[in-house]
């Protein structure tokens, strides 16, 4: 097969191939293992189109290529879209979100600006408004869709960097960080690695965060943070964590907001999955005060159950986004003279102190060029799956999903508590249950090794997936329940498999 132009007539055939594979694959997810290591040798077929796995000089054509990819992919993939994947914090894709993601690829819009795609711009604007309303954030907040929680933290902390530099009379967008002192960043012990990575990419350094924890679990030491802010006597950034990944713990956001106001600090909330606590009356108090944050990061491909590359960031002062991420003009791109750069406003609209150079481009009343609001320029229209799932199921449907998964987490906690060879290590405020194997009469010094082997056996077995962690100095499992398809039967199977594997390990 040569020039793709000659392959135009294959479009219908290959799309039917995908549909034909998708229907049985989706129907099988509830019953198939999450992963079968025995299928991995099939991966070699991905590169054997030519001798030695080199790029083929002549392609095999779209029909043959898709046949191979679908056959191998539906067999070897880690079936994380299914209801028994409890590793990390991974949702699936609701029917509406999956179909909208296919639509996104079909339309292939560049969501860079209104000029490039009025459709993508309008869908993103609506999706962001609906997300803001879903979480009960003030209307004044603005945001942008990004690829992940890491980039949501990057975007938020990037804006915080510009705010902080203003307090030193520096326009960091124009002049960079040279000559500035180190930006103080303070957090409790629930700090996630993605925040460190964001600070690393922003040039602050991943190890510069000052962590104030009052125990090995990571609970924030509020008096220590206050003492440090008083010592600094200058601008600083506080990171509050909504939904810690080992047990689902929360920092006291409202209290940290009080502290931030008292000392003129920027408050960033990392709510990658924990922000969804706002949807249920049972858990809404966990995020009380989030509406007072200066910036918020979240991940739609976790609890919203849309496909990957769907994070988002909100900021209290939307005009700070184009100040941080607007591109210098090129002759064919928006720049000086475009709506985002045509006006300036002096000072900050929030309650934080600002310098005389606190000047940001005004956010125009018309369409937003979202490429100037975040780190990417060319952007996939990732708003479409978000719009579709919110339109399809509404506030009530997503609340019902969260409520059901809260119930499933409590069910898992009960099953663990009732099992004589398992031990729960933490309360279950949200959707993560942290527990470990603890067979009777096994010496305490051998428990960590046993649980490491149990975690490896669980992943090798493949029927269900849940990873290990270290919580309060002890090796443990930490299944997270956020998939829209997970049922009581899947929770029961998780416990059955864990105990079955544990019994085998005890005999080995």
TrEMBL record:
Alphabetical list of Pfam families matching this protein: Pyridoxal_deC
Keyword terms, alphabetized: Decarboxylase, Lyase, Pyridoxal phosphate
One biological process term in Gene Ontology: carboxylic acid metabolic process
Record region (Disordered): 343-365
One Gene Ontology molecular-function label: pyridoxal phosphate binding
Keyword Transcription regulation: no
Positions of post-translational N6-(pyridoxal phosphate)lysine modification: 302
Keyword Aminoacyl-tRNA synthetase belongs to the record: no
CC cofactor: pyridoxal 5'-phosphate
Family classification: Belongs to the group II decarboxylase family.
Protein name as it appears in the record: Glutamate/tyrosine decarboxylase-like PLP-dependent enzyme
Organism of derivation: Plantactinospora soyae
UniProt lineage: Bacteria, Bacillati, Actinomycetota, Actinomycetes, Micromonosporales
